[in-house]
Amino acid sequence: ELVETLRFIEEDEVARDFARIQEVFQTSLELVEVKQERFNRIISSIALEL
């Protein structure tokens, strides 16, 4: 079934959204994954100590 609300966009929407988020928050988000991994390790160690 054809859904007429879908449209083709030449540019990468994820890249465009990512650039817009960085622009809005005026920061680089390139190290977010690394920081998330560190956070998860800290949370895991706290959970193990309880």
Name the features:
elongated; 50 residues; mainly alpha
Plain-language structure description:
It contains two helices and no strands. It is mostly helical. It has one domain.
What does the main sheet amount to?
none
The count of helical stretches stands at 2
- Cα Rg: 19 Å
* Total domain units: 1
Number of strands: 0
- Taken as a percent bin, the fraction of beta residues is under 5%
Mean pLDDT, rounded to whole units?
75
Could you say which structural class the secondary elements and strand pairing correspond to? mainly alpha
Report helical residue fraction: 55-70%
Q: Flag low-confidence runs.
A: none
Summarize the structure.
The chain has 50 residues and is an all-alpha fold. Helices cover 62% and strands 0% of the residues. The longest helix has 18 residues.
Would you spell out the secondary-structure blueprint of this structure?
Layout: H1 13-25, H2 32-49
